[in-house]
Amino acid sequence: MTSRAHLILGLVALALAVLAAFLWIPLDTDSGLLETVRRRVSIGDALAPTIAAAFIGLGGFSLILFEGSEGDSVVPSRENMFRIFALTGIVVLAILIMRWAGPVTLGAEEYRLLRATPPWSWLGFLIGGALLVTALVAGIERRLSFRAVFVGVGWSIALILLFDLPFEDLLLPPNGDV
Amino acid sequence: MSVFDYILAGIAAVFAGPEIAFLGLELPATPLMVLFGFLLGIMVGATPGLAAPMAMAVALPLLISSFGFNPDALLPVMGFLIGVMKGGTLGGSVPAILFNTPGTPDAYMTSLDGHPMAQAGQSGRALRIAHFSSASGDTFSDIVLILCAPFLAVMVEMYLDLPEKTALLLLSLAFIAAVIGGSMGKGLISTGLGLLAAYVGTGEDFYPRLSFGTQELSQGFPITTAVLGVLILGEVFKGLEDEWQRRGTEGKRTDISATGRQRLSRADLSRIAPFIARSAFIGTAIGALPGVGSTLAATLGYTVGRNRHRQRSPDRTPFGQGAPEGIAATEAANSSVSGANLIPVLSLGIPGNAAAVFLILAAESIGGFNPGPSVFRFTEEPNPELIIAFGLFTAMMMANLLNWSIGGVFMRATGVMIRIPRHILLPCVLLLTLTAIYVQETRMAAIWMAVGFGLLGYFMRRIGMSPLPFVIAFILGAKLEETARQAFAATGGNPFFLFSSATSVVLMAAMVATVFFSIRRTRP
Question: B317: buried, middle or exposed (CB in 10 Å: 19+, 13-18, 0-12)?
């Protein structure tokens, strides 16, 4: 651990606490720390979030002033950031495909009518889910293998069998939104 | 009703609830669910990359859909979760002993002596020692829970009023921030973030606070998205990133073959018994403190056992080189945390670890049971919550019986779980978790929020900040505010209500002392 990591984390926490306490919370709550209604004083909606911000600020102070060269924290490296954004990109893309595969294939109105009717109700989940698993496995292995596709499709079907078939009241994504 | 009547009613509730058709017979659901949960927990614990809270998180919506939102569902659902919790602790030692790959973080110490024993052809004996020690520690811890939780809860209800309860919640949050992760600063930040997230879209005003005027945030963050996002998805994202870096290459594993006597003899048992007893005490004492996890218990149990072993038996195999006493000291300590961790949950309503978080989540989702001091009201008229509490104790003892009877056999059969490649397992867990979140919330916004919380959990782990204070603060946030509002009103708007009695002053002083000493401890 370098003291730089604690300093950066402490400063970020302090900045977040100051922004929250003096900007976000006052501007985004209707009542203050305390409010008076019919001459009776009660705790306002801003008090609890302000205490939360105080926790964050106190933590930042503690890191900067008292824990400068202790601990095991590190600043995520550029490689870490690249990899996590690539992974997040795959996840976001797969969720978007999961959301829109059905409406785009069948048309929004048609899909809405069929969203509780198998196999149409599985369309988005199967395509998006299979893509999510396959793409992540392939990305990690740096090659698209039959195994990755098999696991992706197989696991999505297994989840359909687990969540959708036995339970009439459960809706697979994205069927509650369309 | 007398205490004895409540105990009997709790036991009866376990057998009188909903029934399940199993092998052609209509059987009471709760004992069966404890069994299924226990077996699943062992499998999950034995799989590196998975953990009991993951299985609990994913199982919850399925269980609630199966049993419905009514008080009858509480015992089967929570019985299953208790089974998973106990099985998970036991299963974690399997890959630690056989493959030097701890299935759970607290099983790391087990691998120090378990794997050398396995390499020496003593894998069966090492697994049996782990099982015996784990089951002993677990049973001891449950007995302490059953004896202490009601007593503590009654004391809390008797002596703590609203200002004191507010002070106690603040003290708990400060304590959790101080002890988890080893850095006061990071603990406080994690706690503050959890509280801040809990207050989004809530409040008493007409306008949902901190919602930026958006429809999505006006309902607040659903508890499942925050908890599963930070705890499960954060862990999955970090695991995926690690695998991405390693290109999914698995380390080479050598198959272990067993030679010679594998069963435990009476001499073995008398040799490890003092280590089990000592570690069970340590684990139970540590587990009773909210937020202090089984990893610390395992480390302390192991360290104390090693020192004792060095002094008393210098001629025997030393710790770290295949000493049976090392496995016993570790497994008894980490297993005795699980029961004791429920003491703050049942007596104070404060979750002490991730598994307890999911028990509270189940209780909140189903309704009819609010873990906390009010549960233990021994009234003349039947108190349904107290009957449920004794039903839970019964379910825990059932899980212990299963642990003693079939746990060892099943545990030794799960060595095969290590062969599932982690880089294939993690994407499957990701899809499973997202699906579990969606079926509970039924809106895509919940999935986006969960991914956001997952990224938060990832960065927390990356910078060495524990996500557990975040989760516990998120769960306690609403309760803290509500209690403070009531205390403020009850004291006639006294701004110093936290210092209105000697007890609350002591609790607040303890909070300040916790922060002060924790900072001093981490100061260079």
Answer: middle
Mean pLDDT of the B6-30 span:
86
Condensed to tens digits (0 to 9), the pLDDT of residues B291-314 reads 666 777 888 888 888 888 888 888
CB contact (8 A) between residue A136 and residue B204: no
Q: Does A156 touch chain B if contact means CB atoms closer than 8 Å?
A: yes
Counting Cα atoms < 13 Å in the Cβ hemisphere of B523 gives 11
Q: Reply yes or no on whether the pLDDT at B364 is more than 90.
A: no
Tokens found for residue A95 = 């969720």
**Residue written as tokens 């109700």?**
A121
What is the DSSP-derived secondary structure letter of residue B378?
-
SS3 A40: strand
In Å, how far are A65, A68, A149 from B522, measured between CA atoms?
Answer: 11, 9, 49
Which chain A residues are Cβ-neighbours of B210 within 8 angstroms?
24-25, 28-29, 49
ipTM over 0.85: yes
Query: H-type helices in chain A, by residue range?
Result: 3-19, 25-27, 47-65, 78-106, 108-114, 123-141, 146-159
Strand-pairing partners, residue A35, are: A42
Q: Closest by alpha carbon to B368, among B72, B28, B31?
A: B72
Whole-number pLDDT of residue B237: 95
Residue A111 distance to chain B (closest CA, Å) = 16
SS3 B259: coil
Q: Which residues of B touch A95 (CB under 8 A)?
A: 434, 444, 447-448, 451
Contact by Cβ (8 Å): A33, A50: yes
Nearest to A55 among B195, B205, B438 (CB): B195
- pTM beyond cutoff 0.90: no
Evaluate the omega torsion of the peptide bond into residue A174 and state whether it is cis, within 30 degrees of 0: yes
Q: Are A170 and B432 spatial neighbours (Cβ–Cβ below 8 Å)?
A: no
Name which of B61, B63, B59 is nearest B73 in CA terms.
B63
Which of B62, B177, B115 is closest to B324 using CA atoms? B115
Rounded to the nearest 5°, which phi and psi values hold at B152? -65, -40
Cα–Cα distance, B353 to B171 (Å, whole number): 16
Nearest-neighbour CA in chain A from B506: distance (Å): 20
What chain B residue is nearest to A68 in terms of C-alpha separation? B524
> In DSSP terms, which residues pair with A41 in a beta bridge?
A36
Chain B residues lying within 8 Å of A54, measured CB to CB: 192
Q: Which of A99-113, B97-111, B185-199 has the lowest mean pLDDT?
A: B97-111
What local confidence, expressed as pLDDT, does residue B210 receive? 92
> Residue B234: its pLDDT value, please?
93
- Nearest-CA distance from B209 to chain A in Å? 5
- Please list every residue in chain B whose beta carbon sits closer than 8 Å to the beta carbon of residue A172: 435, 438-439
Residue of A nearest to B490 (CA): A42
State chain B's mean pLDDT as an integer.
86
Cα–Cα separations (whole angstroms), residue B172 to B177, B292, B503, B512:
8, 11, 15, 12
Closest residue in chain B to residue A66, using alpha carbons only: B523
Calculate mean pLDDT across residues B149-173.
86
The amino acid that residue B249 corresponds to is: T
Amino acid letter, residue A76? P
Pick B244's closest partner by Cβ from A68, A75, A139.
Answer: A139
CA angle in degrees (0–180, nearest 5) for B136-B143-B32: 80
pLDDT in tens, B434-456: 998 998 888 999 999 999 999 99
Min Cα separation A110/chain B (Å): 20
Distance separating alpha carbons of residues B293 and B283, to the nearest angstrom: 9
